[in-house]
Structure formats: structure tokens, C-alpha cells
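User: Hi! I'm working on a homework problem where we have to compare a predicted structure to a textbook description. Could you give me the structure for the chain below?
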Amino acid sequence: MRDLIFLDVETGGFDPAVHALLTVGLVHWVEGDVLDRAEFKVHSESRRVEADALRVNRIHLAAHNATALTRIAARDAIAAWMSAHRPPTGKPVIVGHNVAFDMAFMDNLFADVWSRAVHESPICTMQLYTSLQSAGRAPAGRRRLDVALKAFGIAPPDEDRHTALGDALAAAALYGAMLEGMQP
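Assistant: Happy to help. Predicted C-alpha cells:
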């Protein structure tokens, strides 16, 4: 196992160039233990927010924006947190479920320097789950996080689901369970 940073974001839609990044959840995980966690609220500013997205992530936009950081302040706070959790080996390895989605929003927030600041090979738990499905070690079917969690008997509290920090913690639990499932 390694020194990893689990990432999840909640957004106002699917397009990082158009839609708001609303929350960022980060979990520092070393050898299977959660050492630290943080969640950052990002003000939607002039970015688009879809009602369907808010229904899923249960964010009340006015209340959210009242306590959220500006995009610049959020970027600085996230960079400071990441710097404090940098592994001794260099760039942090990012892990998430469908991590390319999260990485695209982080690249947009960080003006495309995010991907250069982290290890070039993020780990995607959705791809790992697909591999386990192919090997017959996970049920066939959808690969969404809630389906994968259920397949491994992981039941995070309902109020934590579809929150950035809650889903980052869930992805960390899933990753640990999948590693155990890969053992011969």
C-alpha cells in the first residue's frame, strides 16, 4: 500500500469549463489508515449550477455560497492542505471513483497546473472495480460508487453520500476492500 490522497468533488453539472465546482473532499490515507481529511466549499461565483446536480448533492446554493471560499481562496487553501500532506517520495498519488471527472474540475480550478502538481498516474477505483468484475471477483453490472460499495459490504451513512468528503472516505474504504479482494 502507499501514501495516497483520495479526492471527490461535488459540482453544479458535468462540464468543468462551464459548471461550478462546489465542494472538494480530500482524504490522506497511508497504509490503510485515514490520517487526515478536509472538505472545502467553493463559491459558485459566475459559474452555472444545474438544479438536477443540486438535487443529487443536496447543496442549498444560497446557504452554501454564504460560507464558501472564493475560487482563489479555495485554490490556496487546497494547495496548502496538499502541501502539508505531500508524501516523502514526491508528488501525491490521487485516487477516486471516476477520478478523471474530479481531476478535470481540479485542473479547471488550478488553471491546468493541478495535473502537474500531482502524480501523473491517478488511481481510479471505478477501473479497479471493472477489473474485478472481469475477473469474476465483483458482480457484473453498473460501476457507480454506490453499487461498488454495496458489492463490498460498505455502507456509509446516507447523509455522507454525495458529499465530497463522504464520497472520498467511501472511495478510500472501497479501495482498501478491493485490495483485500485482489489477494490470492
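For your comparison, note the following. Strands lie at 3-11, 21-30, 33-41, 93-96, 123-124. The CA atoms of residues 25 and 165 lie 4 Å apart. Good luck with the assignment!
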